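In this section we walk through a basic example: taking a raw amino acid sequence and producing a predicted 3D structure, encoded as C-alpha cells. The instruction is simple. Fold the sequence below.
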Amino acid sequence: MILLVRGDREFLVEPGEEVHTDLGVVEVPDAVEPGDTVESHIGEPFTIRELRGPDLFNHLERTGAPMMPKDVGLVVGHTGACAGDRVLDAGTGTGVLAAYLGRLGADVVTYECDPEFADVARENMRLAGVADAVDVRTGDVTDHVDDLSGFDVVTLDTENAPAVVERVDDVLLAGGYVAVYSPFVENARAAHRAAEDAGLSGVETLETIQREMDLDERGSRPSTAGVGHTGYLLFARKP
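The resulting C-alpha cell sequence is shown next.
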C-alpha cells in the first residue's frame, strides 16, 4: 500500500488502482516510487508517499479508539521492543500497536475478543504490510495464558489485564517486559498491584499527557485546547 497525497488530502491506495478524487480520476501506475508525481485526468498533480507508522493511525479502519502514537512510543521505549522479539498482545482493536510492533520486525500474537473486530484487524495488518508478522487470533487471552510462553514482551489493552498480569511470569522470558494500557485509573491501579503481587520488578505506572504548543507573536505557551490525556501505562519486568 502507498499514499496518494495532494496538500492535506491523502488516499490509501494499491499500485495499479484507479482512484476517484475531487480533483479528478487518478490511475496509479503499477510501478511507483516515493516522491513520484502522478496526475489526475484533469492534470492535477499528486505525490506518492510511502506508508509509515503515523499513517497507520490515520488510515487503518477503526473499530474503536486506537492507541495514540505517543502511547505506542512509550510502550516501545520502555520495553525495548525490537526486531526478532516475540510479543504477546491482547485487546487488538484497530491493531495500531500490533502493526507498529510488526513493522519494527517483532513477531506478534494478538488476541481480540470480538470476531468482527478481529476480521478488521487482519485486514489492517494486510494494509500495513505486516500480515506475515502479526497473527490476529479471535478470543480472550485469559483463556489461553496457560498455553503461551517464551515471549519477550506482553502488551495488554483489556479490562481483564490485571488477571493476565497475575500469570505473566509464566508467559515472559527472563528479563521480559509487560506493558498495560488503561483508560481508567482503577484498572491501572489493579494492574499495578497485580504486578507487585506477581513479584515483577521495576513496577511503575505513568499518566500519559501530550500538549501541543501555541506559538505566535505574543509568545509561546502550551495550548489550552484539550488536556492531552489519553490514559495510563503500567510497565514491569520479569527478574
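Looking at the output, two observations stand out. The chain has two domains: 2-50, 55-237. Residues 115-128 form the longest helix (14 residues). In the next section we compare this with other chains.
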